[in-house]
Amino acid sequence: MGDLFVAGAGQMGSGIAQVAAQAGRRVILRDVDDARLAWGRRNIENSLGRLQKRGSLTGEAAASVLARISFTTDLMPVKDVPLAIEAIVEDLAAKRDLLTALDRLAAKETVLASNTSTLPITELGRATGRPERVIGMHFMNPPPVMSLVEVVRALTTSDETFRRVWDEALAYGKTPVLVNDYAGFVSNRILMPMINEAVYCLMEGVAERDAIDTVMKLGMNHPMGPLALADLIGLDTCLAIMEILQRDLGDDKYRPCPLLRTYVRAGYLGRKSGRGFYSYGDS
């Protein structure tokens, strides 16, 4: 039996599992195959290793964190947890299918949270028989480092569900903010158009790549330039979010830059593919 079920062992899901385990929760981390689970475990181990090198976590504490996380390809363990968080691919159909499956297996009191960065929580709730217990819990990337959690309240989310998830975020040492259910929420509704405009600046020859990022780092005090940040997020993810913003808000100011589309078509997805606006060698 666990305290939390996390579906998806990728960058976000494994990070959320680590955060919860560091807060003393017993976490069940699930993905569809052993290879993905192995990747998630390595990601957690590497993250804990960095904390040890910085002196913010002892080896014994890191081992305890990892021991509180179990890894599985089975959905059945969701029946024994009070909270389940889905953190799979940013695809509405895939998330709806997963939430429908979780809804069938979970106890009626279990809250189903989505880590979606832009998809409508109200629509995700309709895929279940418990829309009042469906909510957005959007962690920032990477979850072990970033302190913010957008708690996204759907039209149907109950007060009790909201309070439970708000308190859970606080228990993880995070700073929750209430956000209502609009495309992109707050974070990506502001961030993605900025990244998109930076790509337009590059495409139109306003400035070169390094100059664009330097302006935002030194002129606006951003820790990372928008083009480097796009590479970190994934250019395919940036494109998908811009398309959702344009579609759901019906405003062409969210039209994705053609150069962004071209890079994605070429497979230049950023750090995860080894090349985006920057080159990452053989990574």
Structure write-up:
With 283 residues, this protein is of the alpha/beta class. The chain has two domains: 4-180, NAD(P)-binding Rossmann-like Domain (Rossmann fold), CATH 3.40.50; 188-273, N-(1-d-carboxylethyl)-l-norvaline Dehydrogenase, domain 2 (Orthogonal Bundle), CATH 1.10.1040.10. The protein has helices at 11-22, 34-53, 59-67, 92-105, 121-125, 159-171, 187-203, 209-219, 226-233, 235-249, 258-265; strands spanning 4-7, 27-30, 69-72, 83-86, 111-114, 134-139, 148-153, 175-180. An eight-stranded mixed sheet has the order 3-2-1-4-5-6-7-8, sandwiched between helices. Strand 1, helix 1 (11-22) and strand 2 (27-30) form a beta-alpha-beta unit. Helix 1 (11-22) crosses helix 2 (34-53) and helix 10 packs across helix 11 (258-265).
